[in-house]
Structure to design on (622 residues):
């Protein structure tokens, strides 16, 4: 009967029964009254329950059996007191006769109230298993997570364990500990250890009060300093720690501005469906690039705050690919497409063939002789063509081998005609690939070499190759400005890394170090927080260097131009690559605008470092 009563009682108040809790006892009394018990019987039962313990009985082999209830446990009779819902790790401690951390048990009970079993799940491998696995990578100084963090019920248990393990691990990519799965985090650990740890540090710190957060970062920073002193490298660096401090500060200042002082952070979640659901949120309605989420209690209502974390805006790359990959097949007009046999490559080849035809005598003379300063000149040309030393070496080696083969062929055929077909044959004779890129690379190297020696026609050829590429890039930029479909393709690339539409829709906020982009910031920058209105005023400026996507409109009655991204359209291998790279970076001025507006709005709310706020766990004493 007792077991059934306990089971029914737990359904009402949760698994963490407390016989001294008046609310729990009231629920018990109400339940028994509904079941037909009289008040005297209920009183006797409650008194009996107060004397009941849950124990495990020692078995002949020295282990303990399953948990059961007794009136009062007796260690002398081989009974071990234990919580009925104890974790496997706690049961293992009981078997060994080790004490159980009741404070931790209480924290797990509080976690379960917030997020259910998802919140109390440990990592997939035990501490003992991890220590054995990580033996060769263990840091000299052992890091132990502060108790105030371990027992913070607003953080899923496994993340405090994960950060602790990461801070006890030296970098070793051979063991693949640069991936979070190494630490037993399960399906959530597909990403890189440093980035995942950075996001979780920000999430965890945001839930803490000022005192606990300071203790947390002191411990983290001390371990980072110890590792540096010991000549060890960690995945959690000082930069990641600083970023987490700034992120949590910015998030709290944003919430303070939005909700005032009487708000409470009720729970936190990483970008994991089960955690969203455990906190009562619909993952299907998640923001486009949300990294972490908080539930916030305001005036009795539970609200959701989703955060997209960025380390910085400056030089933030939004897209890096080829022109062909940036647009679907039919978005660009035929003369601007670069797949297969295309107009851009044909123009390059035609210019090369004209160079060969119009300058045949000078080409033959140059290739037949070798100037005293040939190597020095080739070094200059290689540096002009590529800024990487390894690539420069390849350019020089390829050209020397080409010239050597040419002299052999000329010795066999004094009437040798230098044209594009010959360049192809020359490369094949060397056993090399005769792709367009390799053939044209030789041609451009030749033109640049001859230009260095004063050949005007060669200089015109090199300039012509550059201009063909630049004109193609300019036409693409102009077309993006004219075509809604092309502009939409570009804006989708922006949205992947800079989710301004999600911010406008209220789905998430962007935190960039100590700065905030939310609806209020957007209105400060653009004069409106409506993304559709912003989009209507976006223009591509093809005359800027590099071309930019910019907002041209009115902000508080004044005409403004706000560059958002730069568009880098450049040939990958100037004059010979045959295809353009398409790269987008956050414009420097946009970052400055965001920082200025964010500072104006949120800068006076709280100090940047460890702000005190009315978030959950912020006690009255702080």
């Amino acid at each position: 009967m007792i077991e059934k009563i306990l089971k029914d009682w737990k359904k009402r108040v949760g698994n963490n029964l407390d016989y001294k809790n008046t609310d729990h006892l009231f629920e018990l009394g109400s339940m028994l009254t509904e079941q037909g018990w009289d008040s005297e019987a209920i009183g006797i039962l409650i008194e009996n329950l107060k004397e009941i313990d849950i124990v495990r009985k020692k078995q002949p082999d020295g282990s303990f059996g399953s948990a059961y209830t007794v009136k009062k446990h007796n260690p002398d009779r081989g009974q071990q007191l234990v919580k009925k819902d104890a974790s496997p790790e706690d049961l293992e401690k009981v078997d060994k006769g080790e004490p159980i951390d009741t404070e931790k048990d209480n924290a797990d009970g509080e976690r379960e109230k917030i997020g259910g079993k998802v919140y109390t799940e440990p990592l997939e491998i035990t501490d003992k298993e991890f220590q054995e696995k990580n033996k060769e990578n263990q840091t000299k100084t052992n890091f132990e997570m502060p108790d105030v963090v371990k027992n913070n019920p607003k953080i899923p248990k496994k993340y405090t364990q994960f950060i602790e393990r990461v801070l006890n691990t030296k970098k070793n990519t051979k063991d693949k500990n640069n991936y979070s799965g190494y630490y037993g985090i399960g399906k959530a650990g597909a990403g890189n250890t440093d980035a995942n740890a950075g996001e979780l540090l920000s999430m965890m710190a945001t839930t803490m009060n000022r005192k606990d957060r300071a203790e947390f970062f002191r411990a983290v920073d001390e371990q980072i300093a110890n590792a540096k002193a010991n000549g060890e490298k960690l995945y959690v660096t000082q930069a990641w720690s600083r970023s987490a401090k700034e992120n949590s500060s910015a998030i709290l200042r944003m919430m303070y501005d939005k909700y005032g002082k009487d708000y409470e952070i009720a729970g936190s979640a990483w970008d994991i469906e089960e955690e969203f659901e455990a906190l009562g949120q619909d993952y299907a309605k998640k923001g486009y690039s949300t990294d972490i989420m908080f539930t916030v209690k305001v005036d009795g209502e539970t609200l959701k705050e989703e955060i997209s974390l960025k380390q910085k805006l400056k030089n933030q790359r939004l897209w890096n690919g080829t022109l062909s990959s940036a647009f679907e097949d039919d978005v660009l007009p035929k003369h601007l497409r670069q797949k297969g046999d295309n107009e851009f490559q044909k123009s390059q080849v035609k210019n090369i063939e004209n160079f060969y035809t119009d300058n045949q005598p000078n080409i033959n003379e140059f290739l037949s002789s070798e100037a005293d300063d040939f190597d020095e000149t080739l070094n200059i040309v290689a540096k002009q063509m590529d800024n990487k030393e390894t690539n420069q070496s390849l350019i020089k080696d390829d050209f020397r081998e080409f010239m050597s083969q040419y002299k052999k062929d000329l010795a066999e055929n004094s009437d040798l005609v230098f044209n594009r077909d010959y360049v192809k044959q020359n490369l094949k004779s060397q056993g090399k690939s005769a792709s367009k890129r390799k053939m044209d690379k030789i041609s451009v190297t030749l033109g640049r070499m001859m230009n260095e020696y004063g050949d005007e026609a060669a200089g015109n050829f090199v300039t012509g190759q550059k201009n063909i590429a630049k004109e193609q890039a300019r036409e693409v930029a102009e077309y993006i400005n004219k075509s809604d479909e092309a502009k939409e393709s570009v804006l989708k690339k922006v949205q992947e890394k800079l989710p301004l539409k999600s911010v406008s829709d209220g789905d998430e906020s962007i935190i960039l170090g100590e700065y905030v982009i939310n609806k209020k910031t957007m209105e400060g920058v653009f004069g409106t927080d409506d993304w559709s209105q912003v989009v209507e005023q976006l223009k591509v400026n093809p005359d800027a260097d590099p071309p930019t996507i910019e907002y041209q409109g009115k902000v508080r009655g004044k005409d403004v131009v706000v560059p958002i991204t730069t568009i880098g359209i450049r040939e990958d291998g100037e004059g010979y690559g045959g295809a353009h790279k398409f790269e987008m970076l956050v414009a420097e001025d946009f970052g400055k605008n965001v920082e200025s507006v964010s500072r104006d709005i949120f800068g006076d709310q709280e100090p940047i470092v460890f702000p005190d706020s009315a978030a959950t766990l912020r006690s009255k004493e702080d």
In short: Residues 2-102 form one domain. DSSP finds 25 helices and 13 strands in the chain. Residues 104 and 151 are 6 Å apart (CA to CA). Residues 606-622 have pLDDT under 50 and may be disordered.
